[in-house]
Amino acid sequence: AGPCDLYSAGGTPCIAAHSTTRALYSAFSGSLYQVKRGSDNTTTNIAPVSAGGVANAAAQDTFCASTTCLITIIYDQSGKSNHLTQAPPGGFNGPETNHYDNLASATGAPVTLNGNKAYGVFISPGTGYRNNKVSGSATGDAAEGMYAIFDGTHYNGGCCFDYGNAEVNSLDTGNGHMEALYFGDNSAWGSGSGSGPWVMADLENGLFSGQGSKQNTADPTVTYRFLTAVLKGGANKWALKGGNAASGSLSTYYSGARPTASGYNPMSKEGAIILGIGGDNSVSAQGTFYEGVMTSGYPSDDVENSVQANIVAAKYATTSLNSGTAFTNGQSISLRATTSGYDTRYLAHTGATVNTQVVTSSSATALKQQASWTVRTGLGNSACWSFESKDTAGSYLRHNNFVLQLVANDGSKQFKEDATFCSVAGLGGSGQSIRAWGYPTRYIRHYENVGYIASNGGVHAFDAASSFNADATWAVSTSFA
Ligand code: AHR
Ligand code: AHR
Ligand code: AHR
To answer: ipTM higher than 0.90?
Structure first.
């Protein structure tokens, strides 16, 4: 059985079932998600390899070979057509055309399930999915349940990495108008014990970790690589749970009455579904989503326990984040541009500015050093890499507002994540492409001889689709200096 078969048997059927990794009903063999590729802007649907099975990642890899791919639709497996698509603007604008949110890379969150490769949904700040016309979801004070599997090591304090029930107009319409899972270390509203991240309930104008609006220490800091998060709510009751999605059982963090703060009892749920954003399209958060469902009715603890057992049996595990050639810690490299007309230029720096410069074996030592980088284990994720300047020890390539800079490591989580890059098979057909770990849609690219992390056809001039693959492909060699 799949998770939604278990919820059905318990009398609390799924009204939405979203996953890019696997079927959530044993009989489901339809499309899990749609991807769009950059080479010709065409789309394809990815289905499980067999009914009830894991997503056909090989079909995606074939379709997306030598180009970029975005997740355009996360289909609803429940039969109610409650699909998730690119979120529209609301109280806050997204960064994409017409103020929509960004779409996620199709390759930012590779994993295996029982040894079979699949891809999750890596949400960078600016990214979000939504459905404001859901059929069958809980409204008002009606009961519902939900769970999601997140990456407990990918989070931030921005508002709000959510999955669940939200406003149908993408605006903050008041307390009690949402009921969604939140994961991250935002403590502006509520918090749990330790320094976070926490699973909390976004009930609108508040992230709740228990009955009180502020800190509830029974809600623990949780950082399981694969994290099961569970939320349910009904008439003057709700519960919050979590656990390791790779082993063991769920723990109850809160189960009891509704918050006493005004507006949350009774609830005024509206029934839209969001992923990666707040109810008002607050779009500053990051996190990774693998699967999640919403139910009708208040699921029993027994059903939730059997769903957790099903999740554990799916055997989520990590796999390489790199589809290109591995770098080696300590290796000294130079990166030559491959774009025709620019292929004597190397990725270099002039002070804090990252650019490309013409370098040859007879260049001055100073210039050779400016074009030389020492590969380090990724500061923000040890499965990827950071690039330390040869002539300015302790300074690394980082992005800031998508512009590459050479900056001293200040030790912050933000710096480390901004200075972490993963390798991708060269988009140009040979060589290497190098994607930003925290923004997997964005690759190290030169544009007008300046360094950026660019997306293929995004809103900035440096995101131009023209010449993208060549500009984002580098020939790796032993360093000049
Ligand atoms: O409740 C926290 C956030 O507050 C909601 O997600 C958002 O709509 C509002 O800004
Ligand atoms: O480069 C994109 C983002 O811009 C970085 O992650 C952040 O540090 C800055 O705001
Ligand atoms: O960086 C040099 C060139 O500038 C790039 O190849 C092109 O995309 C831009 O015009």
So the answer is: yes
Told to judge if 448 belongs to the known catalytic residues of this protein, a careful annotator would answer no
CA of 368 to the centre of ligand 3 (A): 22
The residues, ordered by sequence, that sit 6+ positions from 364 with a Cβ below 8 Å of its Cβ are none
What are 227-252's pLDDT values in tens digits?
999 999 999 999 999 999 999 999 99
Position 326 confidence tier, pLDDT thresholds 50, 70, 90: confident
For the CA atoms of 177, 133, 38, 40, the dihedral, rounded to the nearest 10 degrees, stands at: -170
Cα separation, 23 vs 19, in Å, equals 7
Q: Whose CA is nearest to atom 7 of ligand 2?
A: 400
417-427 pLDDT, tens digit each: 999 999 999 99
The pLDDT tens digits of the residues spanning 108-127 come to: 999 999 999 999 999 999 99
Distance CA 214, CA 189 (A): 6
270 is catalytic: no
User: Closest Cα to atom 4, ligand 3: which residue?
Assistant: 448
- Nearest listed ligand to the Cα of residue 158: 1
Entry pTM: 0.98
